[in-house]
Amino acid sequence: MSTQLQVRQERDMAQIPKVDVQVVKPLQFDDRTPQTTGMRRLAAISHVRAGSESLWAGIMLAEPNTASSVHHHGPLETVVYVLSGQSRVKWGSRLEHENDLEPGDFLFIPPYMPHQEINPSPDQATQWVVVRSGPEAVVVTLTRSPDGEYVADDSADGVDPSI
Fold first, then answer.
1. Rounded to the nearest 5°, which phi and psi values hold at 7?
2. For 112-125, how does the pLDDT look when each residue is reduced to its tens digit (9 = 90+)?
3. Domain segments of the chain: what residues?
4. Of the N and C termini of the chain, which has fewer Cβ atoms inside 10 Å?
C-alpha cells in the first residue's frame, strides 16, 4: 500500500463520528423543548436526544385557528418543510411581511428574525418538519414595544418559561 493511500485512510478513520447512527420513532419525540403559545414542538434530533453537535430537528403541530406568540430563534437558522395543512407566517420587526404556506413548501427563517406561525384553518391541523442550525432549540418570546416593534422581554431574557 502506498504511503499516500495509508495517510488518506488514517485521516478518513479519524473523521468517523463518535456518535452512532440514530433512528428516532415518533413515540420517542421529546416535548421538553422550548414552546410558544398556540404551537406544539417535538424534538426528534437534538444534542440531548441523539448526540447531534450542530443540528436540531423536529416537528411543529398547530391545531386549527391557532397562532404562536411572536418570537425568534436567536442565532439559529431555521428551515421548515410543510407536511400538511395550510399555514401562514408573518415576519419582520413589526410583522410587516406575510406569506401563506401549503404542503410541499419550504421556508427559511434567518437568525434573530421576529416571526409568528399561524394556522388559519377553522378545521384542519397543520404539521411542519423543522430543522435548526444548533444542537438544541432556542425560542425567544418577543413583546410589542410602544413603537410597534417586537423586542425581547429583558425581565426574563425573552426565553419562554413553558419548557
1. -65, -40
2. 999 999 999 999 99
3. 36-141
4. N
